Amino acid sequence: MAAENSSYVTEFILAGLTDQPGLRIPLFFLFLGFYVVTVVGNLGLIMLIGLNSHLHIPMYFFLLNLSFIDFSYSTTLTPKMLVGFVSKKNTISYAGCMTQFFFFCFFVFSESYILSAMAYDRYVAICKPLLYTVTMSPQVCLLLLWGVYGMGVFGAVAHMGNLMFMTFCSDNLINHYMCDIIPLLELSCNNSYVHLLVVFIVVTIGIGVPIVTIFISYGFILSSIFHISSTEGRSKAFSTCSSHIIVVSLFFGSGAFMYLKPPSILPLDQGKVSSIFYTAVVPMFNPLIYSLRNKDVKIALKKTLSRKIFS
């Protein structure tokens, strides 16, 4: 679609995950299965935490919000991806593309900071157990949550502001299955060093700051664990953090691989595969990891199911 300015572009074409027709139907059912598990798992975990009063503590307060974020940003992206597998030409309006990108940025930034808030919660629980109820009071938890979603708004607005100064020319084919900043930068005909620098700075704030917070928290946690004399105590402390460490590794590993490398080092086709991990796989695995590796969640699930059966 020929256009001299982004204001005249009425739609984009999403290239999708693959251009091989034989793979589209199998991939449709694969990602439909991922999405169903994501929705059931995250909404189920939200309901489970809400229905069981013994889970109304800071750790599960943040876990509930993590499940909400995972469900939300998976819903922002996956339905449009599924449409792309079964349609000959997967188009998205300019306004729809910008809306999808805004909410994608909001929820990804929010996830980064909710994971760092959860790391801080584990730090207080293990390193300062006697002060836990005071340090992680409801007021502090709400303040942390406001910070989490505040950074989500910052990330979305910063990226959108960067996009507003870009000009899109004749090519409107986005080499991706979603509207993301890297493929949109490739489409821009006034793509400059300044735009790339803004992207790098914003992504560093979205990924770098939470990673540093998490590393510092776990540095103190490991130091405290090694000072625990009993093997059982050390094992219990490690088990409370293991689920969070797995989730952090999956999310930040795939995100950093996609965004903190120059496009010349990581071609977009490989980037699309990498982005699947944090847009489809991570939201699906998070509730499974926290359910299967968490004793309190498994007990709550058994109690909830037994109440339903007897009622």
Automatic annotation (TrEMBL):
The alphabetized UniProt keywords are: Cell membrane, G-protein coupled receptor, Membrane, Olfaction, Receptor, Sensory transduction, Transducer, Transmembrane, Transmembrane helix
Query: What is the protein's membrane topology class?
Result: Multi-pass membrane protein
Superkingdom field: Eukaryota
Span of domain G-protein coupled receptors family 1 profile = 41-290
Instruction: Please provide one cellular component term from the Gene Ontology annotations of this protein.
Output: plasma membrane
Note one Pfam family from the annotation: 7tm_4
TM ranges: 27-48, 60-79, 91-109, 130-158, 193-226, 238-260, 275-292
Q: Where in the cell is it found?
A: Cell membrane
Q: Name one GO molecular function term.
A: G protein-coupled receptor activity
Q: Does the keyword Repeat apply?
A: no
The record, for InterPro entries, names: GPCR_Rhodpsn (IPR000276), GPCR_Rhodpsn_7TM (IPR017452), Olfact_rcpt (IPR000725)
The UniProt similarity line reads: Belongs to the G-protein coupled receptor 1 family.
Instruction: Output this protein's name.
Output: Olfactory receptor
